[in-house]
Amino acid sequence: MSQASISLSSRKKMAYLLMVGAVLKHLITGEYGPLDRILEFLVFALILYEVINGIRHHRRNDKRQKFLNEQRDFIAGFIPAGEELKVSLPGMSGTPALTPEHRREAEAWRQKTSLWISSTAETLGQRSPRARSAFMNVTETSYSPSMAWKADGSPWYAAEDVAPSFRKLLAHLDNLHKMLANPEPYF
């Protein structure tokens, strides 16, 4: 139990004890004096405080949840472009030779990937520096595979000249998926 729920519970217990005590005194003695009225007012004030505090807490949680849902939608907006880059990976290993055409495609793909990473990081940074840091948190060992999966389920290996950029792309996409699953620490 948290400290807040313990103190809340003890306040309620105290209020109930005071209320029961005032009712018992009234039933036993048949008197209803000024002290009883003060106790009833205090109990009523405590109950009113608990109700208002509960409503405020509920509204604050609703507002925070709405904000986090907006952030999820915001993060989710970057994923399709990254996934598009992932499936547009040029060349597969086993290509007989790295032709000039392949090199041009690979360089264009690396530039698009780099542009997506930098623009995503910049846009995330405008909303939250922590989100930007989490997105950019990529090390050489963050993501080791150099392959993707085709729609038919077969593996698709990155050619050696694009493999480092591909691994970096996969790590950034993985970071976005982690932020999407739990945006709270980042926003």
Describe the protein.
This protein is mainly α and 187 residues long. It folds into two domains: 3-66; 77-186, no CATH class. Helix content is 72%, strand content 3%. It is built from six helices and two strands; from the N terminus they run αααααββα. Strands 1-2 form a two-stranded antiparallel sheet. Helix 1 packs antiparallel against helix 2, helix 4 packs antiparallel against helix 5 and helix 5 packs across helix 6 (163-181). The longest helix has 43 residues, at 34-76. The protein is rod-shaped, with a radius of gyration of 30 Å. The two termini are 26 Å apart.
Give the total of domains.
2
Parts with pLDDT < 50 across at least 5 consecutive residues: 1-6
Query: Looking across the biggest beta sheet, what order are the strands in?
Result: 1-2
Largest sheet: 2 strands, antiparallel
Q: SSE string, helix = H, strand = E?
A: HHHHHEEH
Keywords, please?
187 residues; mainly alpha; 6 helices; 3% strand
SSE inventory with pairings:
Layout: H1 3-29, H2 34-76, H3 79-87, H4 100-127, H5 129-136, E1 147-149, E2 155-157, H6 163-181
Antiparallel strand pairs: 1-2
